[in-house]
Amino acid sequence: IQQLQEFMNHRVPSNCRYQPTEYEHAANCATHAFWILPSILGSSILYILSDDQWETISAWIYGFGLSSLFIVSTIFHTISWKKRHLRTVEHCLHMFDRMVIYFFIAASYAPWLNLRELGPWASHMRWIIWIMASIGTVYVFFFHERYKLVELVCYVIMGFFPALVILSMPNRDGLLELVAGGFFYCLGMVFFKSDGRIPFAHAIWHLFVAMGAGIHYYAIWRYLYQPGALDTKTSPR
């Protein structure tokens, strides 16, 4: 790491934003821009494979959340890198970037909650998760960058709490992939909080996000949208 010190700036206080180097800015943009087209194509595939209204709705919600994550992140990092004099625009995009994460988490659960049979108590998670996303969005609007640890905890809670509904699903196909994807997200958080300690830490976090999202997409495609999975699904009532 010592040999790579020129590629990163010093760590900043908790109440300040880390300023990436030129190399890190470029990496931050590239590591999410690369996945924009695949996310759009993947979402389109799910839409094409949809056989009923709820599959179509779920494909739209999930696809919009997945694509928005990479598009908004790329736009924010590009503006932050190339248009540093647009501080107000950059600040708004940074907030939007954080808000989109809540929407992405909710959208990632939507196909499972909408298309799988759930237990009586677990069915409420279909709307609870969107309330959680709304609360997270409001939190970012009022407390953006003030309490970074609290924000991280909010992401973790929203990421794992809805997963408990899997325990109520009679059909648990895809559980291994969901756990594997969650593992990559959790491991990536180490780098998410390592700016100024590890060169290209944020870009590495982006790669872990892409890997986690890719695994979860595979699980949705295989276990919810393939013809062999049709008999194991049910629409919300």
TrEMBL record:
Localization terms from the record: Endomembrane system
BP GO annotations: positive regulation of neuron differentiation; positive regulation of Ras protein signal transduction; regulation of protein localization
Topological category with respect to the lipid bilayer: Multi-pass membrane protein
One Gene Ontology term of the molecular function aspect: pore-forming activity
Ranges that cross the membrane: 59-79, 99-115, 127-143, 150-169, 175-192, 204-224
Superkingdom of source: Eukaryota
Chain residues that bind Zn(2+): 77, 202, 206
Main location: membrane
This protein's name: Monocyte to macrophage differentiation associated 2
Organism: Serinus canaria
Biological classification of the source: Eukaryota, Metazoa, Chordata, Craniata, Vertebrata
Gene: MMD2
